[in-house]
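Case study B.
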Amino acid sequence: MTSTRTRMVTALAVLGVSLALWLPAAVPCCRAAAQTTDVELAPEIEIHDWINGDGRTTLADFRGEVVLLEFWNSH
Amino acid sequence: MGHLSRLQDKYRAKGFVVIGITGEDRATNLRYMLHNDPAFTYRVALGSAPGYETPEFPWSVLIAPDGSVAWQGSPARMSVKKNLKPLLAQVRKPTAAERDARAAKMLAFANAFLADHFFVRAESAFQALITTYPASEAATTAKARMKSLLVVDGARVEYDAQNAIVKLVGGVEAPNPTSKRVKNPERDAAKLKKLAQQYAESAPRAARLALEWADIYSEVWK
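Model:
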């Protein structure tokens, strides 16, 4: 009986240590994985008129393409 | 600024879009463009973008296909090889739903010009839709609209008058890529004012267009 209990305690302890070793590694892994799907989007632009426009009015309308925003001020 | 047109033209087919953005109004910006980059082919957005910090002008921000900011800085520091090309490698084909949504937006955009009797601009917007998304339902509607573009009373007169102004200016909305730098804006402004008077009764939308361009040409950019 005693030896069975000892074996069980040992098995639980091994399991506990394994979990303790696994968890810290597991948490950053999953957080990092979540970050890749949860992209921080570029701030939207607030536009009232377009020159050479085609009906796409927000950055979301251009998702999937590469956009170069060039800010200028003529003065 | 001519480099922006060249850059977009070179990589457009790979999924590259240039958007100039300025807080100035349309006439001021077109005056500026006529002086600095009369053959520009990229989009200019008139409005604001308060979410961005712009320590200096001009200021470039590259946005990746996933919608995140990938790089920003002075345009002179942007490297096509290091900053742009890796992003172009991430460009993906739009889904069927995205294509349909874009085509629908282009159709609504063209319809708005039609409702405003700006027939030449409507025609070019319908044509852009048909060229970009030929297989879409919106393109079928656009083709039908093109056929019946001038069925409204007086539409033919408007259309011809608008085309006369477009010919003088060099482009439907902005001077086209082949137009030359404006040499004598005062003379063009006078011509446009005369056209506005001529069209005031018969083609009021064309008259408005002529006055808008007369206003742009009446002040020379310094």
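The first helix of chain B runs from residue 2 to 11. The remaining cases will be described in the next quarterly update.
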